């Protein structure tokens, strides 16, 4: 297809390198640990590791970050089940039935279901990625201003609708995110906007510093507020019981639907694991013969969100790799890693680095398989991890954030931006708003602005020209459908309050 | 006696001061050197800087560490160098945006000609005009005929960047108007050709290597032929060759500079080490893989080269209203 067997061999060779394998194992371990630690999610996990990739080759660095990403999405379920505290936003849906199962003494079973579901969802989405991405890359070359405009509008509208406590709050925060991206030199005619006379702001607000501040620092501040939790739980429940084939056969409908739902939601720009998990949970509940059992420890209520959230990983990589538009907040940070390597994700990446593409596809499969073993070991130590007091976690994470952000640009200004955006994120959360629209607005804002202005330039002032593209029309059509998809939204909306996507 | 003692002390003192100063320069370098790059790690600009660091380290016998200070219109990178002492332990990888265009279009807190001493230039890039490989336009003359009749959609990377300035110059010289679409990077401009978002685009002479048979070069946006044109774009004429008397020029170069005020002995040492390291066939071959090697050595000649760049771009930027006032 792209580069053929030669590229596959090159990919296998770089994946078989002992360093890459070590990075994979290390990345999965780190990802699970960060996932287990309450509050720290995939975007934080990836940003913490980002500076270490500076002097690595492209394949090992991307594989390291993908290991962390997949594992962090999974890891959150362990604390969700064992203590009822979601390790990540992606595991909030898992708490409901997972912890209920745990309290009933079926914790081992729940942990087994979440691990199995995560692996199946992960592998399913990688296979989809491997088939969809090359096809989309061929269409993606036709993506011009009008199509990118449609995509960014799509992503923003969907995030605002599902993640906000109410529509207006979501719109306001999403708008604030877009506003912040207008700072710096205007790309179209070079005007200085909100630079406040500081040359540091010419390139706008630094991306990584902002995301680390909003995700990691604000989360740590929220955590620091809570008094030291006293966690006590029955450790015997932490021995995993993997589901047998019979159980899986009974759940196969839910597993397949959740895998598909997660992958599709991952593909939608901006939506990540948390949204995927909620959709899958409510869909499983809606289709269930006894929906009233949900919330009391229903196995389907564990496997549905856990399958879906890992399925968003492969899905999120589809637009990230083919269009350069991040499919999830974590993928936005991943995009930064590509740029550090001098690689511009987009339709050309397939033609230029087929070996890298195959490394990503094959690497993700291996990561998911390794995750079974590392996950089984990690669960045994989860008890100790969950008991690590906030007073240890908070300073360690703050230190890693500072070091990481400083090393991206060797600039103290970026550290200042991180602190400021940390306070911004904290304030937004304290006011009861969700930070998901803020980060998505910040990620999609530049694409939205540039494509809007280019579209205006191309159209010579005619509004109809904006729709003179079949691809853009198709995207707007799907958007209209999702808006009309009210009933599911109504189910999802309530538990989604205050969810910060990952 | 007292007077004599004081005199002696002063003499000894000054002798000591003198010798330590001399020794400090004589044994330069005696600690690791830092090379500041204004681009993120991984790109061509960064790779060349790392080749520089390797070569200098070999010649000078101390480690030369590359640090990347990207963003901020390249001003933070320059300030990073200018805030350090002028002792030759902090070097700067200069490029067109940091020494020519940036200071012209922005209120930069530095003056490249007064605050920096350039040591050499080792790379050069030229622009070329491209269309999609399936375009009906096959020659520069045909392009000219089409462009006279309508405002063609022209892909450029950024406003004020050399490709855009080449497009502006082309428009002025041939009395054409373009609808300039900002595509952010040169590869994105060329990809716009393939996807049909733009009809014509300015890329670099070397861009053809990476885009292969999907794009078609029409003309090299330069007056005189340089030796690497035949290597990268065989058979493609320059503007000056097709329409003698019409003016087209690009000035995209890069090299290494130190902070102004660096002791002459240190500069001499660095220049000598650079000459030894960067005129080898091995280094030239490596640079030629990335862009094109064009060697100017010594403070005076390099300064004159940079001045040429400023003289070329200043009038354009002024006409475009982009000059910082």
What does this structure look like?
Chain A has one domain (4-493). In chain A, a hairpin with a 6-residue loop joins β1 (184-185) and β2. Helix content of chain A is 73%, strand content 1%. The longest helix of chain A is centred in the first third of the chain and has 49 residues, at 92-140. Chain A has 19 helices and two strands. Chain A has 502 residues and is mainly alpha-helical. In chain A, α5 packs antiparallel against α14 (354-386) and α9 (245-267) crosses α10 (273-287). A two-stranded antiparallel sheet of chain A has the order 1-2. The two termini of chain A are 32 Å apart. Helices cover 49% and strands 21% of the residues of chain B. Chain B is built from 14 helices and eleven strands. Chain B has helices at 2-26, 44-60, 75-82, 96-105, 112-115, 140-149, 162-174, 186-195, 207-211, 227-232, 239-242, 264-278, 281-290, 299-319, and strands at residues 33-37, 64-68, 90-95, 116-125, 127-132, 152-156, 178-182, 200-204, 215-220, 252-259, 292-297. In chain B, the strands form two sheets. Chain B has a six-stranded mixed sheet with strand order 2-1-3-10-4-11, sandwiched between helices. A five-stranded mixed sheet of chain B has the order 7-6-8-5-9, sandwiched between helices. Chain B is elongated and about 65 Å long. The model of chain B is unreliable at 13-23 (pLDDT under 50). Chain A: Pfam families: TctA. Chain A: Residues 21-438 form the DUF112 domain. Chain A: InterPro entries: DUF112_TM (IPR002823). Chain A: This is Putative tricarboxylic transport membrane protein.
């Amino acid at each position: 297809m792209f580069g053929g067997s030669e590229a596959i061999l090159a990919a296998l060779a770089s994946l078989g390198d002992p360093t890459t394998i070590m990075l994979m194992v290390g990345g999965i371990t780190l990802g699970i640990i960060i996932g287990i630690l309450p509050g720290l999610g995939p975007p934080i996990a990836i940003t913490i590791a980002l500076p270490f990739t500076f002097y690595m080759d492209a394949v090992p660095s991307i594989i390291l970050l993908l290991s962390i990403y997949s594992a962090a999405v999974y890891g959150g379920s362990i604390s969700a089940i064992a203590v009822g505290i979601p390790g990540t936003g992606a595991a909030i849906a898992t708490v409901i039935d997972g912890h209920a199962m745990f309290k009933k003494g079926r914790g081992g079973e729940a942990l087994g279901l979440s691990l199995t579901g995560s692996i199946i969802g992960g592998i399913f989405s990688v296979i989809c990625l491997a088939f969809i991405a090359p096809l989309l890359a061929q269409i993606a070359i036709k993506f011009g201003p009008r199509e990118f405009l449609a995509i960014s509008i799509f992503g923003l509208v969907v995030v605002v609708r599902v993640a906000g406590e109410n529509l207006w709050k979501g719109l306001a925060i999403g708008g604030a995110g877009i506003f912040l991206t207008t700072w710096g030199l205007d790309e179209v005619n070079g005007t200085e906007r909100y630079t406040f006379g500081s040359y540091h702001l010419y390139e706008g607000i630094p991306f990584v510093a902002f995301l680390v501040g909003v995700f990691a620092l604000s989360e740590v501040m929220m955590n620091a507020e809570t008094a030291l939790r006293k966690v006590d739980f029955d450790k015997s429940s932490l021995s995993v019981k993997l589901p047998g084939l019979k159980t899986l056969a009974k759940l196969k409908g839910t597993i397949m639907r959740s895998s598909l739902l997660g992958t599709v939601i991952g593909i939608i720009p901006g939506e990540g694991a948390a949204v995927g998990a909620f959709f899958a949970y409510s869909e499983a509940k809606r289709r269930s013969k006894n929906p009233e059992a949900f919330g009391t420890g229903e196995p389907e209520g564990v496997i549905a969100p856990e399958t879906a959230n890992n399925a968003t990983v492969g899905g999120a990589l589809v637009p990230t790799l083919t269009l350069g538009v991040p499919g999830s907040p974590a993928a936005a940070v991943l995009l930064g890693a590509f740029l550090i390597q001098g690689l511009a994700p987009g339709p050309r990446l397939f033609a230029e680095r087929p070996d890298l593409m195959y490394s990503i596809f094959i690497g993700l499969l291996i990561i998911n398989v390794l995750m079974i073993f590392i996950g089984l070991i990690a669960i045994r130590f989860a008890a100790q991890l969950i008991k690590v007091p906030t007073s240890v976690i908070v300073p360690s994470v703050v230190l890693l954030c500072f070091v990481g952000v400083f090393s991206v640009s060797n600039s103290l200004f970026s550290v200042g931006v991180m602190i400021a955006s940390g306070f911004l994120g904290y304030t937004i959360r304290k006011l009861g708003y969700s930070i998901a629209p803020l980060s998505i607005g910040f990620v999609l804002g530049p694409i939205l602005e540039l494509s809007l202005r280019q579209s205006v330039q191309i159209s010579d002032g005619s509004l109809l020209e904006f729709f003179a593209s079949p691809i853009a029309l198709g995207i707007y059509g799907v958007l209209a459908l999702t808006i009309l998809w009210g009933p599911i939204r109504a189910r999802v909306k309530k538990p989604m309050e205050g969810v910060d996507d990952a | 006696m007292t007077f004599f003692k004081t005199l002696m002390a002063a003499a000894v003192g000054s002798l000591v001061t003198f010798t330590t100063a001399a020794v400090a320069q004589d044994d330069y370098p005696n600690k690791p050197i830092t090379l500041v790059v204004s681009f993120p790690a991984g790109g061509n600009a960064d790779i060349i800087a790392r080749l520089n660091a390797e070569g200098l380290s070999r010649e000078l016998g101390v480690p030369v560490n590359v640090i990347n200070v990207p963003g901020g219109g390249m001003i933070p990178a320059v300030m990073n160098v200018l805030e350090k002492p002028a002792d030759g332990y902090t070097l700067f990888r200069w490029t067109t945006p940091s020494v020519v265009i940036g200071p012209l279009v922005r209120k930069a807190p530095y003056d490249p000609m007064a605050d920096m001493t350039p040591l050499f230039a080792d790379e050069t890039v030229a622009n070329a005009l491209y269309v999609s490989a399936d375009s009906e336009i096959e020659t520069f003359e045909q392009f000219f005929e089409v462009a006279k009749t309508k405002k063609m959609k022209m892909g450029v990377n950024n406003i004020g960047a050399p490709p855009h300035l080449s497009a502006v110059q082309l428009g002025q010289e041939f009395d054409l108007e373009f609808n300039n679409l900002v595509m952010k990077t040169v590869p994105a401009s060329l990809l716009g050709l393939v996807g049909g978002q733009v009809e014509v685009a300015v890329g670099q002479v070397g861009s053809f290597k990476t885009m292969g048979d999907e794009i078609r070069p029409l003309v090299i946006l330069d007056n005189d032929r340089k030796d690497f044109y035949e290597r990268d774009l065989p058979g493609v004429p320059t503007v000056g060759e097709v329409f003698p008397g019409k003016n087209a020029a690009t000035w995209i170069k890069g090299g290494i500079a130190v902070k102004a005020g660096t002791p002459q002995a240190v500069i001499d040492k660095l220049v000598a080490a650079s000459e030894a390291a960067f005129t080898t066939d091995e280094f030239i071959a490596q640079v030629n893989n990335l862009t094109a090697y064009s060697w100017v050595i010594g403070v005076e000649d390099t300064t004159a080269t940079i001045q040429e760049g400023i003289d070329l771009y200043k009038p354009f930027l002024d006409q475009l209203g982009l000059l910082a006032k």
